[in-house]
Amino acid sequence: xxxxxxxxxxxxxxxxxxxxxxxxxxxxxxxxxxxxxxxxxxxxxxxxxxxxxxxxxxxxxxxxxxxxxxxxxxxxxxxxxxxxxxxxxxxxxxxxxxxxxxxxxxxxxxxxxxxxxxxxxxxxxxxxxxxxxxxxxxxxxxxxxxxxxxxxxxxxxxxxxxxxxxxxxxxxxxxxxxxxxxxxxxxxxxxxxxxxxxxxxxxxxxxxxxxxxxxxxxxxxxxxxxxxxxxxxxxxxxxxxxxxxxxxxxxxxxxxxxxxxxxxxxxxxxxxxxxxxxxxxxxxxxxxxxxxxxxxxxxxxxxxxxxxxxxxxxxxxxxxxxxxxxxxxxxxxxxxxxxxxxxxxxxxxxxxxxxxxxxxxxxxxxxxxxxxxxxxxxxxxxxxxxxxxxxxxxxxxxxxxxx
Length: 403
Prior knowledge:
Blueprint: E1 14-16, H1 23-34, H2 53-65, H3 69-77, E2 81-86, E3 89-96, E4 104-109, H4 120-127, E5 140-145, H5 163-176, E6 182-186, H6 189-200, E7 205-210, H7 218-226, H8 236-252, H9 254-261, H10 267-271, H11 273-281, H12 285-295, H13 304-317, H14 320-330, E8 346-350, H15 360-366, E9 370-375, H16 383-386, H17 388-399
């Protein structure tokens, strides 16, 4: 794929970006963790009241005494980082070009509670496929931006940075990098953004890959939200998806309502590292169970360092509230899980511990140009982060026909 090597001048310049963390900020972080005022233990024996005290205290002990941000910082600094101003806001992104000239440009978008940390493990397998069990023809040039208000991107000072504006900004970014044909991938918020990119259907966008597909018919989505019984006539797969979505709406997204309605009220997670960590751990039941096991001494997908790398980058950049406002921006606009009318080619990977397992029937209706559908045996909501090899294989296979 062609790429412009000369940097644009002036307002559209692409500027190198360097990550530097003063030691004093890490010392202050550890001090604040040690100074946490703990509540009493929850009076239940499960996670039904939220993140359990034992889990958060284990996290805090490790964070304060053993965790080393410098290891994560070194991984980040080994990659090429850039910033460019789009629509008045600085957008940070990692840009790793494959050594294979005919690589397909791919922009990958993280979610909440996330950052570019989620995508670090897929950079090598996607840009260097010949060293990772695939062929040169499967190579990608990778662009991994930080969403506005997240990580090292700028924090919007005015309203309006919702999914549609981010989707348009990503197209501007890819074209500014010289990519005249590209594909897009996303999970969580990234899944909403790639759906919106596909709705806008810029001619440069060949297709998308999603691991949290928006597939629910509107009536099914509304019924699940209302708590209605399972509608009649659903297949077995559709019934499972409905029940899982209903659970998400009823018991799984308290944070979405808080951030969607009153994000500025969350001063506690900007002021307390442990408050931030607990809030981030409480994304969804299956992910929480995986994370809790890790801090109980077991190993499953994500490590303790993985989890704390993502929390720490949010703490150090003070982006807890600026990231939360994305929910407010989208309130009443795009649904997270419903079909949106996408008409360009779409590849879908269904990981078993996602919020819901997307049935093929609804997926085919939501995406009439479905070019790939596969159900995996392992993996959850944070698939790129947790199962990078499986995820990379899915992206290669799913988008192969668009090359």
